[in-house]
């Protein structure tokens, strides 16, 4: 895993919730493909290795696999399965695309983010400095600006709109899953939690319903 990867946080949250005995292994962010080549052509994180030595990849299929294998599929069986699938797709298409703009949406925030990542993740001496100072103009100038321009909203407004859409779907319940979280809750929580190590997380704190739900999720793990 990478400690700042939203897809890893999705899976990690569920693992912590289920209290599974799992080793979290950091990889070098500059050498991901090399370090996970044992898992075939996937070339990304997270990669989950079970006790049989079999590899499982891709965050949403991993949520389903872990729930089915170690939790008797209880989270997948909460509520309407079609609704859950639709909102898992919503999370993976909307929430996943919102993480880059809020972390790299301005040149200042992009620099803060890459410097922070270089301190958190497993980098070599030179790779750490290369990522911190060469990574931010790429993430800001090429990727984040394009996404912000395409969406048309400021990163904070985008996140607030998404959190409103998500919490409105709770129907007055504490979680999307009702009285307890389901797979959708863990998916959205992972994306939101991946921002928490960064100063930009402050931009989300005045979304009252979103933060109340986030804090409830924290208590479940």
Describe the structure.
The chain contains nine helices and two strands; from the N terminus they run ααββααααααα. By secondary structure, it is mainly α. The chain has helices at 6-18, 32-35, 59-70, 81-104, 107-120, 125-151, 155-168, 183-193, 208-220, and strands spanning 47-49, 55-57. It folds into two domains: 6-70, 3-Layer(aba) Sandwich (Glutaredoxin); 81-220, Glutathione S-transferase Yfyf (Class Pi), Chain A, domain 2 (Up-down Bundle), CATH 1.20.1050. A hairpin with a 5-residue loop joins strand 1 and strand 2. Helix 1 crosses helix 8, helix 4 packs antiparallel against helix 7 (155-168) and helix 5 (107-120) packs antiparallel against helix 6. The mean pLDDT is 88. The protein has a two-stranded antiparallel sheet. 60% of the residues lie in helices and 3% in strands.
């Amino acid at each position: 895993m990478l400690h700042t990867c939203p897809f890893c946080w999705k899976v990690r949250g569920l693992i912590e919730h289920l209290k599974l005995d799992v080793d979290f292994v950091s990889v070098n962010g500059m050498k991901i493909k090399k370090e996970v080549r044992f898992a075939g052509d996937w070339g990304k994180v997270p990669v989950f290795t079970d006790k049989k030595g079999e590899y499982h990849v891709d965050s949403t299929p991993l949520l389903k696999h872990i729930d089915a294998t170690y939790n008797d599929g209880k989270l997948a069986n909460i509520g309407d399965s079609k609704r859950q699938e639709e909102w898992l797709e919503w999370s993976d298409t909307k929430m996943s695309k919102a993480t880059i703009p809020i972390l790299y949406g301005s040149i200042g925030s992009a620099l803060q983010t890459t410097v922070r990542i270089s301190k958190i993740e497993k980098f070599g001496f030179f790779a750490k400095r290369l990522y911190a100072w060469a990574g931010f103009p790429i993430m800001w100038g090429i990727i984040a600006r394009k996404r912000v321009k395409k969406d048309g909203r400021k990163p904070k407004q985008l996140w607030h709109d998404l959190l409103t859409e998500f919490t409105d779907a709770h129907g007055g319940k504490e979680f999307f899953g009702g009285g307890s979280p389901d797979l959708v809750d863990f998916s959205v929580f992972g994306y939101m939690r991946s921002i928490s190590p960064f100063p930009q997380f402050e931009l989300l704190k005045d979304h009252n319903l979103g933060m109340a739900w986030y804090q409830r999720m924290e208590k479940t793990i």
